[in-house]
Amino acid sequence: MKLLLDQNLSRRLVARIEGLYPDSIHVAELGLDSASDRMIWEWAGERGYVVVSKDTDFRQLAFLYGPPPKVVWLRVGNVSTSVIEALLLGSVSQVVRFVDADEEALLVLSRAD
Predict the structure, then answer these.
(1) What confidence score (pLDDT) does residue 62 get?
(2) What's the CA gap between 27 and 76, in Å, rounded?
(3) How far is CA 99 from the centre of its chain?
């Protein structure tokens, strides 16, 4: 499963989640770290990636245009990379179901407090 991690997420996440989310990449590795959300959206959609972001702009793009790409929106606020890692690793089955559901555009993941 190919996740494209947005610039508001740590680059270190890619190595931490690659066992369960192979072929994932961070926008910085592609030279897209200063690209607009729309450019990232188009890049991901053309290449079959799922955008993972804390940015509400991607949530809005998913509502406006639908897939592709699909968006996993992390509604977590200002948390550590470890919290985001645990959330993504603990949500693999939910993410897989979301990716497999053709009509779904947005998956919201939030941490349980």
Answers:
(1) 95
(2) 20
(3) 11
pTM to 2 decimal places? 0.94
| Pairing outcome for strands 71-74 and 3-5 | unpaired
In angstroms, rounded to a whole number, what is the distance separating the alpha carbons of residues 20 and 96? Answer: 10
Mean pLDDT per segment of 10 residues, for the chain of length 113 residues? 95 96 96 94 97 95 95 94 96 97 95 65
Cα of 26 vs its chain's centroid, Å: 10
DSSP 26: E
CA distance 69 to 106: 9
For the chain, first and last CA: distance in Å?
Answer: 28
Q: How far apart are CA 6 and CA 4, in angstroms?
A: 6
CB 72 within 8 A of CB 107: yes
Nearest to 12 by CA among 32, 24, 1: 24
